[in-house]
Automatic annotation (TrEMBL):
Classification lineage: Bacteria, Bacillati, Cyanobacteriota, Cyanophyceae, Oscillatoriophycideae
Organism of origin: Oxynema aestuarii AP17
UniProt GO cellular component terms: plasma membrane
UniProt topology in membrane: Multi-pass membrane protein
Record flagged with keyword Cell membrane: yes
Family: Belongs to the 4-toluene sulfonate uptake permease (TSUP) (TC 2.A.102) family.
Parts of the chain that traverse the membrane: 6-36, 43-62, 100-118, 157-180, 187-208, 214-234, 246-266
Keywords linked to the UniProt accession: Cell membrane, Membrane, Transmembrane, Transmembrane helix
InterPro entries, sorted: TM_pro_TauE-like (IPR002781), TSUP/Inactive_protease-like (IPR051598)
Subcellular location: Cell membrane; Membrane
UniProt-recorded name of the protein: Probable membrane transporter protein
């Protein structure tokens, strides 16, 4: 019961982070499900797709009303990411792709997201609002056929979405701005729509292959959505720049914790079970003793 309460409080924190920072919080869904709620890694990844997809869809609504969703680019880029997400999900259901491998890959992506977040928060003279200068840390593409690069990156982001359950907004936004020549505000709104599409495609790829606790998924989605409303309200009074650095270091700590929990993946023994949460490992031990 305590784990259930803590998990839902943390899920609300995901929404608050999304409302305050405009992204990033959804990457915490998998650790909450695995290490707090005791869900198997593969099931947690599938459930996180449902949570991230729903919250992103809700976040798309105000952007749509403001005209900040480019339907054409969402369809072009989204088609590539959806194909990748479906393929990534199918790849994840293969026997040789373990939950441990998925969690390790997830932790590596957390490190990348943390690096971008910390670096962005350290830029001088930057306001709390989202401006094009936010992308000065990304390498400028040198290409004659940027639409091809856009589709290629879309496939890559989609595969990662299907494999580990992250939305990929930290990669989609710069791709839309630098490769798709999209204004920043429009890129943010379009990115949320694409993340929703990715989540649907990923869920389709996992359908019938992985067990899902839909009741828990729904309750965590409600908690995260409620938190997003609170975060959007608090964003009027809190400067996002100061929160970004703290959130970045928090992601670093979480990534380190996940890698430590799955340290058996880097040795010849203990790899199959190192991806399990402590609660799940306890249940497995009881079954074996019996």
């Amino acid at each position: 019961m305590i784990a259930w309460i803590v998990g839902h409080i943390l899920a609300a924190g995901i929404g608050i982070s999304l409302g305050l920072l405009g992204g990033g919080g959804s990457i915490l869904a998998v650790p909450i499900l695995v290490y707090v709620m005791g869900v198997e890694p593969k099931s947690a990844i599938v459930m996180s797709l449902a949570i991230v997809g729903t919250v992103s869809l809700l976040g798309t609504i105000p952007h749509w009303k403001l005209g900040n969703v480019n339907v054409k680019k969402a369809a072009i880029f989204g088609s590539a990411t959806m194909l990748g997400a479906y393929g990534g999900a199918k790849l994840a259901t293969l026997p040789f792709v373990s939950g441990t491998f998925q969690l390790v890959l997830f932790a590596i992506l957390m490190l990348v997201a943390a690096g971008f977040t910390i670096r962005k928060s350290s830029q001088k003279g930057q306001s709390a609002s989202v401006e094009p200068d936010d992308l000065t840390m990304y390498p400028r593409p040198v290409c004659r056929y940027c639409w091809l690069w856009l589709l290629t990156e879309g496939l890559g982001v989609g595969v990662l979405t299907g494999l580990v359950g992250v939305g990929g907004g930290f990669a989609i936004v710069p791709a839309l701005v630098l490769l798709g020549k999209t204004p920043m505000k429009e890129a943010v709104g379009t990115s949320l729509a694409i993340i929703s599409l990715n989540s649907v495609a990923g869920l389709m790829g996992y359908f019938g292959e992985v067990a899902i606790d839909w009741r828990l998924t729904l309750s965590l989605t409600v908690a995260a959505s409620s938190g997003m409303v609170v975060g959007a309200y608090l964003s009027r009074f809190v400067q996002a720049k100061h929160l970004q650095k703290a959130f970045g270091y928090f992601l670093l700590a979480m990534a380190g914790f996940i890698l430590f929990q799955n340290r058996g993946a880097f040795s010849s023994t203990g790899a199959p079970e190192s991806g399990r949460s402590p609660a799940t490992q306890g249940r497995v031990a009881v079954v074996r003793k019996s």
